[in-house]
Amino acid sequence: MTEATIIEKPWVIAHEIEGGRLQVLLVGPDYAKHQHFGIVIADIIGHVAGHFDMDVQDVLDWVQREIDDPTTTLERLGPN
Question: Do residues 8 and 29 make contact, with C-beta atoms less than 8 angstroms apart?
């Protein structure tokens, strides 16, 4: 196992905005990179699986289907 990658005080907020669009806000410390939020996303997938009493792989399969054939388009709204 490699050294732990830690992100302090991450925020991932998803909410509906005008027109039924989904806005996702990613907030973290200045040092945060995509790897840090990747860990947060992996944790969220685990929590979703646990919440619905599902296998993590089932949630990952659904996520992969969405990545391969998105139901919505991504629109960059912020400065990052």
Answer: yes
Answer whether 0.90 is exceeded by the pTM.
no
Q: Backbone dihedral region of 19: left (phi > 0), alpha (psi from -120 to 50 degrees) or beta?
A: left
DSSP per residue over 34-59, as a string?
HHHHHHHHHHHHHHHHHHTT--HHHH
Strands 21-27 and 11-17: antiparallel
CB distance 10 to 27 below 8 Å: yes
Tell me the pLDDT tens digit for each residue of 4-27: 788 899 999 989 888 888 888 889
Supply 33's token pair: 């990179």
Residue 73, pLDDT above cutoff 90: no
